[in-house]
Amino acid sequence: MYYWKAAIEKPIEFISAGHFTAGYPWIHGKRSMNSFEIILGLRDTAYIQQEDDKFEVTPGSVLLLLPEQTHWGYAYSDPQVSFYWLHFQCSEQNMEFMDEKQAEAELARYKHNPYLDGAMPFVLLPAFFKPHEVDKAGILFRQLLHIVESRYYTRQGADYMLTSLLIELSQQSMAAYASPQGEMTSKHQRMMNVLEWIRIHAVEPISVDDAAREFNYNPDYLSRLFKKEMGMNMQEYIQKVKVDRAKDELGRTDLTIKEIAQRLGFDDEKYFMKVFRKHQQMTPTEFRRAFYRTHLNNK
Question: In the chain, which ranges are continuous DSSP H helix?
């Protein structure tokens, strides 16, 4: 699998973006473009092939397609298939391609040097991956679409928003290198499993006790371990995941605040609004009004 590395001393150049929803049995047309494309799966599966590589773009997965390479759909998708897409350009002198070993070595050089850690002047993305906290990327995608449709006075607004999105995706793709030796200990792996379980079950009224039962932990031990690893208690993290999911629903759907609260496991709409305001310093309604513009397409 290839990795794409690009310098970000200056923002990456944005071209276009949108939210695709098919509405009929759909297959991607065959094309070759002179720009990069990123696809973030939202619903069902898009079947996309680039040259000899086939990808199943499922909800939460990210695909990076390359310029001057032909890509097409190799199977039909259900009518409900939906994804965010964007196109951007990057000059050849500001980027390079790597294989997996080269990417690992590049990350290790920065992560294991205290003078360089936190100072990476680039983004680094694999061809295809599934971010652990994809809701964050989805929110940035929505903000990018809003900026584009709002016709900001300068195109650089979209360039900087795009670069922020690429940084977020890079951050999540680099998560596996967080341990001191560049590989995940069994304790880190178990914690990643807990985080993934929370993400999947965020629409339910879950608690620390529920997670402890799922992974055969003592609740007090799991709480201490989570606090140590994540820097916050588990209930606070669960709320944060729910709020991120709520932000996506607020920007992407016409559901009422009450309906969104119920979908996320909140029986009390007012309590949901209190939790949302605590994490976002604004009400759900204020957030929805801030990012309501987007470009939709089904071709």
Answer: 100-111, 134-149, 156-173, 186-200, 208-214, 219-230, 234-252, 257-263, 269-280, 284-290
Cβ atoms of 280 and 291 within 8 Å: the answer is no
Tokens of 219: 């609740």
Strand order in the sheet with 128-129: 128-129, 62-65, 36-43, 82-89, 13-21, 296-297
Q: What single letter denotes the amino acid at residue 277?
A: R
Check: CB of residue 74 under 8 Å from CB of residue 48: yes
Q: Tokens for 146?
A: 């809003």
Q: Decide: helix, strand or coil at residue 184.
A: coil
Superfamily covering domain 3-177: Regulatory protein AraC (2.60.120.280)
> What sign does the dihedral 128-129-135-140 (CA atoms) show?
negative
H/E element, 217: none
Within 8 A by CB and 6+ apart from 123, the residues are 5, 6, 8, 12, 163, 166, 167, 169, 170
Contact 36, 66 (CB under 8 A): yes
Please write the tens of the pLDDT for every residue from 131-177.
888 888 999 999 999 999 898 889 899 999 999 999 999 998 887 55
Write the CB contacts of 236 (distance below 8 Å, at least 6 apart in sequence): none
Could you tell me the two tokens for 151?
A: 């016709």
Q: State if pTM tops 0.70.
A: no
Domain borders along the chain are 3-177, 186-290
Question: Residue 180: beta bridge partners?
Answer: none
And the tokens for 96?
């390079």
The matching CATH number, chosen from 1.10.10.60, 3.40.630.10, 2.40.10.340, 1.10.530.10, for 186-290 is 1.10.10.60
Tell me the pLDDT tens digit for each residue of 82-117: 999 999 999 999 999 999 888 888 877 666 554 455
